[in-house]
Write a structure and sequence with these properties.
heterodimer, A: mainly alpha, two-stranded antiparallel ribbon, 4 strands, 69% helix, globular, B: 343 residues, mainly alpha, ABC transporter involved in vitamin B12 uptake, BtuC, two-stranded antiparallel sheet, 68% helix
């Protein structure tokens, strides 16, 4: 085992929240992320002109709407203690298939559901392989990644422009709140996905099953929870979110390219971890993932504003943050025992 | 006969032979090896040469996977090692000085080993899941490599450094000799001492091996250091072959190929039993696959599809649940032949 489906560990079980004053320990990682985000924003405002513009803040969402959707799907998977490496490749495949079909003259109303269905079925397939054949999620989704990336390269090695009127309308449509203050339609879609996801996780039977499996899959099974259905469902959700993320990316880029979204699986995992979701599963919030995506976006914004910092500092800072949050997770989970 | 078929290296070997044989239909001179200027030339030599970085990385990965871990950072370590070596050589007053190149190689390998210590400590001391612990260095490492080269591609024109990746000794490529020596030394040390068995026991059951008095922590850290060290050598071979350090291209996605090579070689990702020979065979198989796609003339991208199929087939054949479903009728008894562990 490479530690993805954790052995029965009593300490990771979902403990009923002890009623006591002060902070719930499960909230600490999310609060730290929130503090970090506020701190970074303060740093930006203090050091750079125009950083306090509302649009600078909104652009973080505009530029990362697709990542937000993908990371939301990844949150479901990681909450069960799994991992999905295929997301970036599925995003790329979605953009390529959508662009190719639109280029061939298919109407947008047909293409849109078709690509979403394709991503969802890919996720369903991976979930089925993981559950029925007890293949490591890491390996099954790695195969999915090779498959999706290979298929998109096979379809077309070059970037395909999208000129469909619906796509261009979605790309250019801006929802304005005032002069120079706007968001794109993709942001609205991403936020709706996050809200639905958060509701499902917190208030539905399926959502509670996700947490229960991540806490301890064996106990969940003994409790009579539908482990099989839930585990396959989270990969299906992730597949759907990846293809929707791909659609949003094709709105943003107005092209389909097999090399789009390279390494996006790492960004999504980083966003989920920085957002405070425990990688062994069972604890975390979708709200934290939103904060995680915002932290990643904020790092890029600060580096852009600083001007003399090179792009590789993004990677180094993300690495340092990953390290800090993973160690923090260890400390938090250790103390709850 | 059944013993031969059941040997865990049978299927990978058979696939390799089929793959090589299929080339003859497209390039009749595929198996010809010629001697030009005292150097061996031919497609088979090309396959071996292009397999060298992957074989080294897969060797290190085998030991990490045997302890029940995984190392995603090998590609980044390759990039860092090549970048540092090229930076030092580029700064030498005389780039052709052998001593200077040796110092550069030594420093690059020492840094690689240090990065391995970092991975090992995160996994064995702090207790972070291996996939996540090494993800940190995977993300940050490429940034560090770009920091070393200042985002540029550093070109070097050092004859001694070129020898590592592009030189020949007795007609054989030096990189192939390096890999053969490292693999032989590793196999000798690991299999002729108790080390291999200890690593397998840690991978099979950390708790049981701790109760048996095995120092799992030290062994695990050693495995990560070894993996990073191997990745460091692979990075040197890669950058020496192209006489430059490219922080983006060096070792890009090699971690996935290495894991694939290890799995093809019959080492289960769950840890425990491992096969060094299998991993090297897996690396050669992947390299042969790349060369074959060029020979046949299919787009290189289809190798990704083929790899996907290979991963699925291999993992399903390793999955006990799958075998139970498929072989239920034919073999009532569980089919898990106890194959002798051989390096």
């Amino acid at each position: 085992m490479i530690g993805i489906s954790a052995p029965p560990q009593p300490e990771t079980a979902v403990v009923a929240p002890r009623r006591r004053r002060g902070l719930d320990r499960r909230h600490i990682p999310v609060l730290v992320t929130l503090g970090l985000l506020v701190g970074m924003y303060g740093l930006g405002v203090a050091n750079y002109d125009n950083f306090s513009d509302t649009q600078v803040f909104l652009n973080i969402f505009v530029d990362n709407a697709f990542l937000l959707v993908v990371a939301a799907g990844m949150t479901f998977v990681i909450l069960t203690g799994g991992i999905d490496l295929s997301v970036g490749a599925v995003v790329a495949l979605t953009t390529v298939v959508a662009a190719t079909l639109l280029h061939a003259g298919w109407p947008a109303v047909v293409v849109l559901p078709l690509v979403l269905l394709m991503g969802t079925s890919l996720g369903l397939g991976m979930g089925a392989v993981i559950h029925y054949f007890k293949v490591e999620p890491f390996i099954a989704t790695l195969a999915g990644m090779f498959l999706a990336r290979g298929l998109s390269l096979l379809i077309n090695r070059n970037s395909i422009p999208i000129t469909d009127p619906f796509w261009t309308a979605m790309a250019q449509n801006r929802i304005r709140f005032g002069p120079g203050i706007f968001i794109s339609t993709s942001v609205v879609i991403a936020l709706v996905v996050v809200l639905i996801g958060a509701y499902v996780l917190a208030y539905t039977r399926f959502g509670r099953n996700v947490y229960a499996i991540g806490g301890n899959a064996d106990s969940a099974l003994l409790m009579g929870l539908p482990v099989k259905r839930t585990r396959i469902a989270v990969y299906t959700v992730s597949g759907f979110c990846s293809s929707l993320g791909g659609v949003l990316l094709s709105f943003y880029m107005l092209s389909g390219y097999s090399l789009h979204a390279q390494g996006m699986e790492l960004d999504a995992i980083a966003a989920v971890v920085i957002g405070g979701t425990i990688l062994t599963g069972g604890s975390g919030y979708l709200f934290g993932t939103v904060l995680g995506v915002m932290v990643l976006g904020m790092i890029q914004t600060i580096i852009t504003f600083q001007g003399d910092l090179s792009s590789w500092w993004t990677k180094i800072v993300i690495g340092i943050l990953l390290f800090a949050f993973i160690v923090l997770q260890r400390l938090v989970t250790r103390r709850t025992t | 006969m059944t013993n031969l078929v059941r040997h865990r290296l049978f299927w990978p070997s058979a696939v390799l032979v089929l793959l090589l044989a299929s080339n003859v239909f497209f390039a009749p001179r595929f198996f010809t090896i010629t001697l030009q200027d005292g150097h061996l030339y031919g497609s088979l030599i090309d396959i071996l040469r292009s397999a060298t970085p992957l074989a080294l990385v897969a060797l290190g990965m085998t030991m990490v996977i045997a302890t029940g871990g995984i190392d995603l950072s090998v590609g980044s370590v390759m990039a860092i090692s090549g970048a540092l070596a090229c930076l030092i050589i580029g700064g030498l007053p005389d780039q052709d000085s052998v001593a200077g190149v040796l110092i550069a190689v030594g420093v690059a390998l020492a840094l690689s080993a240090l990065l391995g210590v970092w991975n090992g400590v995160l996994v064995a001391v702090i207790g972070i899941q291996p996939i996540i612990a090494t993800l940190i260095l995977m993300v940050a490492g490429r940034g560090i490599a770009q920091l070393i080269t200042d985002g540029q591609i550093i070109n070097v024109s050092s004859a001694p450094y070129r020898v590592i990746g592009a030189g020949y000794l007795f007609g054989i490529p030096v990189s192939v000799i390096i890999v053969a020596v490292v693999v032989a030394a590793a196999a000798l040390i690991i299999r002729r001492s108790a080390l291999g068995v200890l690593v397998e026991s840690v991978g099979a059951s950390p708790t049981a091996s701790r109760l048996a008095g095995i120092r799992a922590r030290g062994l695990t850290i050693t495995a990560y250091v070894f993996a990073a060290f191997c990745a460091g050598i692979a990075g040197l071979i890669f950058s020496s072959n192209v006489a430059s350090a490219d922080s983006n291209a060096a070792g890009n996605l090699i971690e996935l190929d290495a894991i694939l090579a290890v799995v093809i070689g019959g080492t289960a990702l769950t840890g425990g039993r491992f096969s060094i020979a299998g991993s090297v065979l897996g690396a050669v198989l992947i390299s042969a696959l790349d060369i074959t796609t060029y020979t046949i003339g299919v787009p290189a991208e289809t190798t990704l599809l083929f790899k996907a199929v290979v991963v699925v087939v291999l993992c399903l054949s390793q999955s006990a649940a799958f075998r139970a479903v498929v072989f239920r009728r034919r073999n009532p008894a569980p089919v898990t032949p106890a194959v002798e562990v051989s390096a």
